[in-house]
């Protein structure tokens, strides 16, 4: 005999009911099948809404109508597909059940809350109707059916809403039922009966447990639980995108996974199966071909992989008790345990300090008021006499558990977990390792649970290095960067690297990307995004999403954003920037950034601040780190000015050359910023600071290219027009230089001692800067190691492609 259980997700609509009927029929061809059904998806939630709210007749009738409509829709569609289905009979039964429900609601309308026995009846209606529908589908396909009534045969111990089952007693009763060998057996899940034959339920998600019990009672050789996922996965796929399927796990591991929150199985399901040595397979109704997950004895399953999963339990509170009583008497814990046993309160996790001065335990939030009340009552005199301090409670917590075979004996797993949590700035309030051999649990704030789950899952189960990107600025560089990341996707995948762009923003809007959004279509989604961007929103978002290897990339030229970097580091983010504003801000801020990166162990990368993609900053840092000293420096640091001065040599007017440079994307948004010399001065300041000079931007002497009144131009167009006024004077300067065999170049200089200047210089043909034009940069470093011939770095120092590729290579340095 085989036991099949189908969850609500497998019974969500007519097609699914019929697919389940097919699976039952197919199995019945080989051996007798007993089937346990849950209520169709969502139905139990509607029914729970009825009992959880204050009794308000109109609202309740609304919920009842919604549930009834789902059933009618299901059977109407079944009839459409399977015309011989017993539609009218089934419809009558649905009507009768819902009328009964409405009558109950009316009968209790003067109550504040429904009594628990009535609550149990209300929320179990879905299962009852699932069985009726399935029975009528199978009868109309000419099968013989035996229905097992769970109220009469599954004997419960406990209360109306969360009962356990006396399996031996249930087995006795079921063995008395006369079941024809050819019949398909059906039983409603979730339901049992107490000693008085009153209906009770087995707790939310309890039909998995019903299935296990029936499998034991019928001596089934296998229990198959059919759901909406391929089996037990390394974490909940609704929370984590890169889970993998576990082919087989031991009973113990499955118990641990479900106990600590893996909803795919009700926590009580596995124990009876283990006791009766019945293997269990979790399978997917929407992917019948998949092998599923086998849950069996440890020796029978593949234990190549120690680690099995990461789970979370939310809505947890932690109580901490302290005081000298704990040291003086050994009976405090037993007294609490006894009382909790009587009150049906479950302690999920417990830790005690080795000094015995205090201990903490975690329970579900819903029990917290009751617990506080009974503890205060239990220890009334001890609290009064100050033998115990007042009981401390922390709410809004979650327990995150890592499950694996003998995991607590592996030395490196806890360290990886803590490292992952620490890197994303998640504090652990309590930890439990060793009480169960197969799990390690940590208590954290609920607000941190999702990112912690993802970080730990990626660290332990995902064989890829993930970099999470929060992109600010989608001008030329930002956009090109996205293109380059897309282009390199497969290449990086082969190197086990995955770049996840989590957000894209400009100064007005922000787009959140998830697995459903294809990065290729980001522009469309960005246009449709209604999410506003501002600093407050950004900071909140970063706080909630500090995944491992998270990076803010600043591709703007925004001053205000550049002042946020320290804030970003403190939230656990690396920063990569093509924006020069931070490094050219006050020396104090410059130093504060460096100090914070050291303190927070984060990277600050800005290779593109000077010379776009050219490896300048890194080269300079390498020289300084290895003891070299800069003697002096000369360089053409502006791609736009290199281009413009190159064009002047070809007898092109300054205004035309500038316009061309702008059209090619070589200039800042307003080319006035390039020609003012300030941009070159900023780059020079960055280089000078990099080699250790403590200077400010004002200390750099700038010989202006433009007359003073040019700075006042409001926009680019006005500026380009005005530029024509000085075209002739430049024609003259170029000619004068040419007459003595020289060219004009806009040069940044760092002299020995740190004096910095930027100015137009006439350059000789034997100078390395003589041939540098067309947007190229050239930097000549005379250092202790590089002299008398200087170290020369030369190449394109502007343009979206090279700048984006510089940012991209900084990005890869985060993990390489
Ligand atoms: P059913 O209605 O079939 O009982 P449930 O919703 O109760 O289905 O359980 C299946 C769900 O359990 C999955 O859709 C998945 O989101 C969730 N789940 C949580 N943890 C895990 C896990 N480790 N492996 C698989 N599924 C999980
Ligand atoms: N229908 C019940 C619930 O949703 C039982 C189950 O699905 O297992 O909790
Ligand atoms: Mg379930």
From TrEMBL:
Pathway: Amino-acid biosynthesis; L-threonine biosynthesis; L-threonine from L-aspartate: step 3/5; Amino-acid biosynthesis; L-lysine biosynthesis via DAP pathway; (S)-tetrahydrodipicolinate from L-aspartate: step 1/4; Amino-acid biosynthesis; L-threonine biosynthesis; L-threonine from L-aspartate: step 1/5; Amino-acid biosynthesis; L-methionine biosynthesis via de novo pathway; L-homoserine from L-aspartate: step 1/3. It catalyses: L-homoserine + NAD(+) = L-aspartate 4-semialdehyde + NADH + H(+); L-homoserine + NADP(+) = L-aspartate 4-semialdehyde + NADPH + H(+); L-aspartate + ATP = 4-phospho-L-aspartate + ADP. Its EC number is 2.7.2.4, 1.1.1.3. GO terms for molecular function: aspartate kinase activity; ATP binding; homoserine dehydrogenase activity; metal ion binding; NADP binding. This is Bifunctional aspartokinase/homoserine dehydrogenase. Its cofactor is a metal cation. GO terms for biological process: homoserine biosynthetic process; lysine biosynthetic process via diaminopimelate; methionine biosynthetic process; threonine biosynthetic process. Bifunctional aspartate kinase and homoserine dehydrogenase that catalyzes the first and the third steps toward the synthesis of lysine, methionine and threonine from aspartate. Residues 321-401, 402-479 form the ACT domain. Signal peptide: none annotated. Keywords: Amino-acid biosynthesis, ATP-binding, Kinase, Lysine biosynthesis, Metal-binding, Methionine biosynthesis, Multifunctional enzyme, NAD, NADP, Nucleotide-binding, Oxidoreductase, Sodium, Threonine biosynthesis, Transferase. In the N-terminal section; belongs to the aspartokinase family. In the C-terminal section; belongs to the homoserine dehydrogenase family. Homotetramer. Gene3D superfamilies: Acetylglutamate kinase-like, Aspartokinase, catalytic domain, Dihydrodipicolinate Reductase, domain 2, NAD(P)-binding Rossmann-like Domain, VC0802-like.
